[in-house]
Design a protein that fits this description.
This is Alpha/beta hydrolase fold protein. InterPro entries: AB_hydrolase_3, AB_hydrolase_fold, GDXG_lipolytic_enzyme. By secondary structure, the chain is an alpha/beta fold. The protein contains seven helices and six strands; from the N terminus they run E-H-E-H-E-H-E-H-E-H-E-H-H.
Length: about 200
């Protein structure tokens, strides 16, 4: 079972972003679910994480005995890693994620999020003390901004230190959106399922 969390800087986009994943994976016989979450400023990032944890628990309950692979893009990758710290998953696919929220707290992106320095640190999954015994792939586009590339490297380093069997894929000709449209994350899901 593949579970996807959409991006949108925690304040935009929707479950409809997952139509590409749903069609591609279902056509290959894989189970698929996408998690919708309430956006900022209506709720905090902590509440979004809680919503995603509840949704994943619901999906697991209705799919007993199935391996669950969790993934997300951008803000969805942040939520996926935060959820994986609290929930057992067999694999993670983290695409162009933001895992250290501290740099965001000083930007206009933060206006609807309302993060202060302490909250940004607390909600950054790369500072949590958890073990990740699952298979993980971190993907980042080579045409993404240096900050997204640093975020991908930071996630890779954190996961390696905390027990994940992790691979970092820097995809040279892809940017933040091409990486999804190109379907590289779907290849990651398939690789994890085949292991």
């Amino acid at each position: 079972m593949f579970v996807w969390i959409h991006g949108g800087y925690w304040q935009g986009s929707s479950i409809n972003e997952a139509l590409l994943e749903a069609d591609a994976l279902a056509s290959q016989g894989f189970g698929f679910a996408a998690i919708e979450y309430t956006l900022a400023p209506e709720v905090s990032i902590a509440e979004m994480i809680g919503e995603c944890e509840s949704a994943l628990a619901w999906i697991r309950l209705r799919n007993p005995g199935k391996s669950v692979f969790l993934g997300g893009h951008s803000a969805g990758a942040h939520l996926a890693l935060a959820v994986a710290a609290q929930s057992q998953v067999e694999g993670l696919v983290l695409v162009s994620g933001v895992f250290d929220l501290r740099p965001i707290s000083a930007t206009t992106i933060n206006e609807p999020l309302g993060l202060d320095e302490a909250g940004a640190y607390e909600l950054s999954p790369i500072f949590a003390d958890f073990r990740f015994p699952c298979l993980t792939e971190v993907l980042v586009g080579g045409e993404e901004s240096p900050s997204f590339q640093m975020q991908g490297r930071a996630a890779f380093d954190y996961l390696t230190k905390n027990g994940a069997a992790v691979e970092l894929h820097s995809l040279s000709s892809l940017d933040h959106f091409d990486i999804i449209l190109n379907g590289e994350h779907l290849k990651s899901f398939r690789r994890l399922a085949d292991r």
